[in-house]
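Students often ask why we bother predicting the structure of a whole assembly rather than each chain alone. The short answer is interfaces. A chain on its own may look different once its partners are present, and contacts between molecules only exist in the joint model. In this exercise we take two input lines together and write out one structure for the complete complex. Read the inputs first and try to guess which parts will touch.
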Amino acid sequence: MIEFEGLSIRYQAAGPTVVTDLNLNIGEGEFVLVVGGTGSGKSTLLGSINGLVPHFTGGIVSGEVRVDGRSTRDHRPRDLADLVGVVPQDPLAGFVTDTVEEELAYTMECLGIEPSIMRRRVEETLDLLGLADLRSRALRSLSGGQRQRAAIGAVLTAHPRVLVLDEPTSALDPGAAEEVLAALHRLVHDLGITVVMAEHRLERVVQYADRIIALSGPGVPAAVGAPPDVMSTAAIAPPVVHLGRVAGWNPPPITVRDARRQATTLRQLLIGHLPPLRPVSSVAAPDLGSTPIAGVKRLGVRYGSITALRSVDLDVHAGEVVAVMGRNGAGKSTLLGTLVGSTTPTSGHVLIHGRDPRELRGPELLEHVGLVPQDPADLLEAATIAEECAASDRDANCEAGTTRAILALLAPEITDLTHPRDLSEGQRLLLALSIVLAARPGLLCLDEPTRGLDYPTKERLAVLLADLAAAGHAIVLATHDVELVAEVATRVVIVADGDVVADGPTVEVVTSSPMFAPQVAKVMSPEPWLTVGEIAAALRVAGSGPATNTATNTAANTAANTGESA
Amino acid sequence: MATIEDRIPRATATPSAAPGAERERRWLHPMAWWAWAVGLAIAASSTTNPLLLVGLIAAAALVVERRRPDAPWSRSFAFFVRIAVFVVVIRLLAQILFGAPTGGIRVVALPGIDLPVWFAGVRLGGTVMLEPMLQALYDGLRLAAIIVAVGAAGSLASPARVLKSVPAAVYEVGVSVVVASTFVPQLVTDVARVRTNRRLRGRPDTGVRAVGGTMLPVLHSAMDRSITLAAAMDSRGYGRSADRSRTHRLLTGGALLTGLVLVVIGVFLLLGVAAPTWGAWGLIAVAAGLGFAAVSLTLAGRRSVRTRYRPNTWRAPDISTALCGAATAALFIAAARIDPAGMTTATEPPVWPSLPWLSLVGLAIALAPGWLTPDPPQAAP
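Now the answer. The structure tokens for the assembled complex follow.
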């Protein structure tokens, strides 16, 4: 269906090749996953399939891409619109019309399809993707998962043979992601559509893939193979694969089901061991004496007739990492907004160190609370990294060079003269984080920090957050990323429809919910393990002498727990 | 125990009790709303009677209130009303500052300066007289009524649906206009977001300096969004065109050029620049020119392969809405012929405006679409 023949793409004549000598034939009805770190050329490869690269973006292409025999050399993206459907990363930015139904018809209108056929296809597609109830809704009013399905439907009505998707689930909550992936799975199996998809969250998608194209950066040819083969060696792999490596399973499992079937012995081996306890929150130990860094009392927020938060109580103490989870639009960002004083509560109050954050301005605000927004680029204004860091030092009234030093620690590869907009998504996040950290805020808030982050950057972020919490910062992060939560959070708060529906230690909350459980927890259930790291550590202990060590480990945990409460 | 009455009545009783409630919700043809609004605007331009002008504004506002859909673009009506108020205020201020103090009724004496003769002898300020102020108010109201009528059409007719009715040849220009119009509300949210984030960096979020700082990030994100949208539209087949022959291209271009030349000549003759008696020829030339232009547009439209999904249809409510606009305009113009004094309220001396009955009928008809038309579809269930 799609033939890559010696495809190499570079953006500068002297620069490195972003895609290097790719020879590949993707067959009809195949589900191909493109993986790779940020900046490894995933979007470029996807764009080359319908000719957006180079017709729209520019670039120097050698070799050829043919889709159903049509070469992108002499077919522009619009000439391939009937063959290749492209779903952009942010569907909202790619919508042309106002309502779901109009959007579904748009591609067909451009292709000049007969009105009677258009009408029939719109109805079919509405049913196929479960959008029938939303047909006359405004696109802006849809939730994240609904938008993504509408965007898929909008290209599907043209009956394309190939569907290209760029990170379709990265901005979605686990439930909405399942919804979108189920729809894609159905398209591949029922209609034989070829799907090529890039995604960072391998734990969500790898089980659907027939083949994986692993990109490892400029100048290096891509590795192509079946998921188990690629996963057995790839640096970028979902937790379940890492678990397989730690446990010595060969080939590594790809799905939770595979892993669970092999995990019986592992579970038995670890009986009696317990993962190290994380600092416990005020909820678990209500008589905890210290005053919280952030205190939220009966907080309610309404936007017009919409209730974003109803009556939320939340105390965040120093050393805690609180993960706020919940559906898209459940009120997570609103909660963060009130913590930093950007959103005005309609009822109740928020106190940071006993002060109302709305009254804080300038350096005083910065040392109390900092927020890394959903789009870190919003914080950035300067033309170079050096200027940005200098401005940040001035804003926070701290010693010159503070921000730059933090950034050098987080992302040593970033150079002074780069334009902040030229950074990758992950690097931009780290820059925004450095700026916020320069003022050493007591409370650090992060809104969706892992959107578009690859595994290595995510690991770096997890280590950093754990260090910050150990240094006495309180951290609140709103996220959909269950794996990050499993790594770093000490406490999880689940928000639904403006209410807090669960609040407790991470282990208790995530293992009790199939939606928010990380892969390791699903494999190890009912034992309370959350991360591969915990299991690896426990295995080392178990390997050296199981019987005696079990007791000491438990005792140590109890001691740690008591110490925390005292 | 169920009786027979329990089962039968509901199905038959409800429709007769509330006939309007059962009507299907649908979009009215956008051109119907525009025809109605243009009718109101023509009516407004034919009178300076303040009561009638206020009546027209009220009629437009009432229909908007009843039939406005819940969509971002439909919130523009308030904006147009504000512009209308602003126009009236500016007109009155200009009269106070620069107007000649004719008439005999003194309202208030303000200090004034007479500018020297070489400055055309203009007088600034001075005594404010009632008569010219009334004249200014009526003029301002007339303009305000026209603005409100246009605003009403803008908030009743979806720009995307207007687009469905434009000729295929200018469709692509139309898309750019509609897309651009959706960028304005988006910019407003961007500015708010960037300002919030400036505060988070400990910088001023209000005042002149903040405006400078917000510009760059806002423009950046607007730019990013346009590029994404352009790529998405390209991948979805926007701008596909069928290949046509050289003769076709020549015909299209030739017809357009001939049409334009004819229109220019016709306007020249109509304005009586050459000889006043050639006016009839001018009219013919303009008509022929427009005809050629229409032929050219049709020919150019053939190059586009586009089809239209569920095009707007003209049904009874649509036609009657357009007719209501036309009738209002016709009645106002007729009233102006029959009763010029009633339609052009005198200001010297000031008199209480009368209400010609023909124009009152016109006002009532202008209101009718608020009840004749179906409700717009709901945005959210």
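Check your guess against this: Confidence is low (pLDDT under 50) at residues 1-21 of chain B.
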